[in-house]
Amino acid sequence: MADALPTDPSVIRSYAVDTAAFYDRFCGPESHSARIKEAIGELIDRYHLRGLDIFGIGSGASQEEFWLWKLGGNRLTIADIDEHGGIEPSLKVLPPGDLNFHVGDAERFLAGNPTAKYDCIYVSGLTPDEKRRYAILWGPTPPTLLKRIFRRWPKSVDPFHPLVMAAARHLRPGGLLIVQSYAFGINAQRNRNFLPAAARQLSENGMTLIEAHSWVPYRSINLFVGRMNGGPALDLGPALTTFHGRGEPKQPIERTWPR
Ligand SMILES: C[S@@+](CC[C@H](N)C(=O)[O-])C[C@H]1O[C@@H](n2cnc3c(N)ncnc32)[C@H](O)[C@@H]1O
Q1: How many other C-beta atoms are found inside a 10 Å radius of the C-beta of residue 154?
Q2: What would be the CATH architecture of the domain defined by 13-257?
Q3: What CA–CA distance (Å, rounded) separates 177 from 197?
Q4: Max Cα separation, the chain?
Q5: Which of 11, 18, 67, 225 has its CA 20 to 30 A from that of 39?
Q6: Whose CA is nearest to atom 27 of ligand 1?
Q7: Residues with Cβ within 6 A of ligand 1?
Q8: pTM across the whole model
Q9: Which one, of 108, 115, 158, lies nearest residue 136 by Cα?
Q10: Rounded to 5 degrees, what are φ and ψ at 204?
Q11: Over the stretch 167-192, which tens digit does the pLDDT of each residue have?
C-alpha cells in the first residue's frame, strides 16, 4: 500500500523530540520570547500549572507551550495538522526527547487514544475554532458596516468548536481548559451574550468557566479558562497582568469573567 500523503491530517504521525531543540528550531530571538515567557509564567502561577500532563491542540511552533514545559516542568503532548507543512520535516531530524508531537487532526488523535487523560488542555489561535467564531458572527463574507453595528453573538450558539469540547472530555477532574483567541476573536464587551454562552456550553459539558480576560485596547484578544468539575478546591494565584505575550509594548488586560 502506498504511503499516506505527508499532509493527510487523518493519519497521525508521532514523534518524540527534544523540546529545547524544537523551540530553538522555530522560535528565534525575534519571536518576542521574553514577553511570551512572562505571560506563560503568570499563567503558571495563577492556575498552578506545574508538573502536569498538558495536551496542546494546534500548538504549531509551540512558542507558548515551550514555556509551560520549561518554567512549569509540565509534560507536553501536542497534536497539530501542520497546516503549512513547516514542522514535520524538522520533527524527522531533531534529537529524541520528551516532546510528544503528533502530526494530524487532534480529534482523530484523541479518538485513537480514548482513555488518554490530561490535567490541562491548552489551545491558542486554533484555526478551526477561530474561523468558526468568525463565521458565526459575521457570515461568509467580511462584515459590512451595518453588520458591525447590529450583529451580535447569538445567545444559544456555542462559542467553542466541537473539537475543543471533544478534547475537554479528556480532562481529569479539576483539569483546566485554557483557550486563547487572538485571530478572529469576539469582543465580549460588545457581545454581551458571548461569555454567558461560554459558561453555558462549559456547564453542559460538566465544566465551569472560571475566568476570562481580554486586552483592553484590543477586546477581541481573549483568554478563557474553564475547569472540569470535581478535583481539589480551586485556589487561584496572583492576578494576571498579561497574557498572549505577542505584540509590543505590553498591553493592559482586564478580567471580563466573572463580571
Ligand atoms: C494560527 S496557528 C496557532 C499556532 C499556535 N498555537 C500559536 O498560537 O502560535 C493554528 C494552528 O492550528 C493547527 N490546526 C488546524 N486545524 C487543526 C486540527 N484539526 N488539529 C490540530 N491542529 C490543527 C494548525 O496546523 C496551526 O498550527
Answers
A1: 12
A2: 3-Layer(aba) Sandwich (3.40)
A3: 16
A4: 57
A5: 18
A6: 60
A7: 57-60, 63, 79-83, 105-106, 124-128, 163, 183
A8: 0.95
A9: 158
A10: -65, -15
A11: 999 999 999 999 999 998 899 999 99
